[in-house]
Design a protein that fits this description.
- The longest helix has 24 residues.
- By secondary structure, the chain is α+β, with helices and mostly antiparallel strands.
- Helix content is 31%, strand content 27%.
- The strands form nine sheets. An eight-stranded mixed sheet has the order 19-14-13-22-23-34-33-30, sandwiched between helices. It has a six-stranded mixed sheet with strand order 3-2-1-4-11-12, with helices on both faces.
């Protein structure tokens, strides 16, 4: 038995692959105060005491970083460079904002320490740190009361001897150590320092959290779409920052491929946020991820997140404008309709418009309080001077606009036309918004996978075991030797692994790179092609140079078969009155398990255990061979556009 676990803000999802190939899923309410307890409860419920392997998408590192609740951490660097993490790149992300918000740093300057050492870029003359100085550093760290330390010396990606000496001197002092040549041995001091510091900042929390799960065979999902052992995650917690969303990307790509779609936009709308991604044959990767303004230089799936989910709170700002998110009601108290919260959320707006009924959630296991939703939306309506229905529709329009912008970021801003892709919608709320958003973007096909409400957990069952290895190559001429060194390390860590080579390449003088598959006969050819696709031009007469070489090691797992489990009749339940496209319509309601491959017209509401799908008028839908609901915009509607 294998179990995928996605710990979300509102619910923790479980996808279970039984020994006979059966798939099932269920949800438990998340407990932010004790997330491990919920996970252990779910594993016990799924396994019934039998042996089971679990792959877990953790939000512990993510939340600690976003909420600035990590360990008290020291930053140790080359003398004279202690301001490195504060100076950064001096970029201005809000160019025309005269009063930009102050940056939130992980640690104060008083916890930055310089060491008298120096390594030059060519690996030549250098100064070793003295034993007396390192002993003095230990005393300073003890007085500072830190529990973790990040060590990042200048050019240590080229020669790590000084970092190794400092780390050896601090071992045995009870500190959690994060050393840059082990975490990210790559060119660019600021990004390397930021990544190493983040790893030290969240590492002790991840270490303690995984300690609570000891005794169970649990792997942890990485940001790159593969999983690693719990021991590896304890040492390199920074690789789990986008752990949960990465499972959704992998699951969406697998479900889409099973249905014959290879070019897809992933749209994961959960309780607290929406994650969007793009896969053109395979999901896009990046080594330039940024979380809350902090760069993380490890391979990660290219995911863009916005604070718009089912639990996103609506409010009226000082100028009288309606806002939705990024604040969320979370798991506690949750949307007003859950029985504890008071604020109006996106979920409450759907309840007011008749799209979510009292007995609809989790197969009727969780009852919705319709009156509380109405009261919450009424408070927003009073501030806007509008009626209840107009306020609810306004909340959904604002939320949709936020999510449309996010999809444009991963498509239009990356050189892709969203109309060339199918929109794969999942998460508890994804299906309620997908067709409306797709229509606004000109996307004609929407795919809602089976187990859409727990697709991130399913993606963790599909994900392979993966580790990434990298080395800077600016000063190296023998690339083959560098690749072989990385591959030796990969085979030692993961015997029997499959290896893939790639390189970060740029035009000489550029300050950014593109990652391309390694082509030893002409490494620049794939770079020119990708540069032209993304930026609209390529200068094939200009010299290209390799900045970083990378090796990806993977070991495949037995993957669940994604197929339609049964043939239904597509007979609708009694229609329900709900507000769709500005009108109150009598809308047929279908149970997902009762659908067949027969094409049906919208409007329709499709109810599943963990998700709900809304099919507006001018759309048709059917169930495909992989169990996906396929919704298509009618030809007449396309022509009108």
């Amino acid at each position: 038995m294998r179990i995928g676990v996605d710990a979300g803000g509102t619910f923790t999802d479980f996808a279970v692959l039984h020994g006979d190939g059966r798939l099932e899923s269920f949800k438990l309410r998340s407990n932010p105060a004790a997330p491990a307890a919920v996970i252990l409860e779910g594993i016990a419920r799924a396994s019934g005491g039998r042996r089971a392997e679990a792959v877990h998408g953790s939000t512990v590192a993510t939340n600690a970083l976003l909420e600035r609740k990590g360990a008290r951490t020291a930053f140790i660097t080359t003398e004279g460079f202690t301001d490195l993490i504060f100076i950064g790149r001096q970029n201005r992300p809000q160019l025309y904002n005269l009063t930009p918000p102050l940056r939130r740093f992980l640690i104060p300057p008083s916890l930055c320490f310089g060491v008298s050492e120096r390594t030059f870029i060519d690996g030549g003359a250098r100064r070793r740190p003295g034993k007396a100085e390192l002993e003095s550093l230990k005393r300073k760290l003890r007085r500072a009361g830190v529990s973790s330390a990040a060590i990042c010396f200048l050019h240590s990606y080229h020669d790590a001897a000084n970092e190794k000496a400092a780390a050896e001197a601090l071992r045995g002092s009870g500190l959690y150590l994060s050393v840059s040549h082990e975490v990210v041995p790559e060119y660019r001091e600021y990004e390397r320092a930021s990544t190493t510091l983040i790893n030290a900042y969240v590492g002790p929390l991840m270490d303690a959290y995984l300690g609570e799960l000891e005794g169970h065979d649990i792997s942890i999902m990485q940001s790159n779409g593969g999983h690693i052992t719990a021991g590896e995650a304890r040492r390199q917690a920074v690789r789990t920052i986008l752990s949960g969303p990465a499972g959704g990307v992998v699951g969406a790509a697998a479900a889409a491929r099973a249905g014959g779609f290879r070019r897809v936009l992933g749209f994961d709308m959960g309780g607290t946020s929406t994650d969007v991604s793009l896969a053109d044959g395979s999901p896009r990767m990046t080594t330039e991820a940024t979380i809350d303004g902090l760069p993380i230089r490890v391979p990660a799936l290219d995911i863009h997140t916005v604070g718009a989910g089912g639990g996103s709170l609506a409010r009226v700002d000082e100028g009288g404008l309606l806002r939705v998110g990024p604040e969320s009601a979370g798991a506690d108290p949750g949307p007003a309709c859950y029985g504890k919260g008071e604020g109006a959320t996106v979920t409450d707006a759907h309840v007011v418009l008749g799209r979510i009924a009292a007995d609809q959630f989790l197969g009727g296991q969780m009852r919705i309080e319709v009156e509380r939703s109405a009261a919450a939306v009424d408070r927003i309506a009073a501030q806007l001077g509008a009626d209840r229905v107009a306020a609810a529709e306004g909340i959904l329009r604002v939320a949709n606009a936020n999510m449309e912008r996010a999809i444009r970021v991963v498509s239009v801003e990356r050189g892709h036309d969203p109309r060339d892709f199918a929109l794969v919608a999942f998460g508890g709320c994804g299906g309620l918004h997908a067709c409306e958003i797709a229509g606004e973007l000109g996307i004609g096909v929407v795919v809602i996978p089976q187990m859409a409400g727990a697709l991130s957990a399913l993606g963790m069952l599909v994900a392979d075991r993966v580790r990434d290895y990298s080395a800077s190559a600016l000063q190296r001429e023998d690339m083959e030797k560098r690749f072989r060194e990385l591959e030796r390390a990969a085979r030692a860590d993961m015997p029997g692994c499959r290896l893939e080579r790639s390189a970060d390449v740029r035009y000489r003088g550029q300050s950014y790179e593109l990652n391309v598959p390694w082509q030893p006969s002409d490494f620049a050819a794939p770079f020119h092609a990708l540069h032209e696709k993304i930026y609209g031009y390529a200068d094939r007469g200009r010299r290209a140079e390799i900045v970083t070489v990378r090796v990806k090691a993977s070991i495949g797992v037995n993957k669940p078969a994604i197929r339609r489990e049964r043939n239904g009749t597509s007979e609708a339940n009694p229609p329900r009155r709900m507000r769709i496209a500005g009108r109150w319509l009598k809308t047929p309601v279908y149970r997902r398990g009762e659908l067949s491959g027969r094409s049906r017209p919208g409007p329709a509401l499709i109810i599943d255990y963990g998700s709900t799908t809304l099919i507006p008028p001018n759309w048709r839908f059917h169930l495909d061979r992989a169990g996906n609901v396929i919704a298509r915009l009618s030809l007449a509607s396309k022509k009108m556009r």
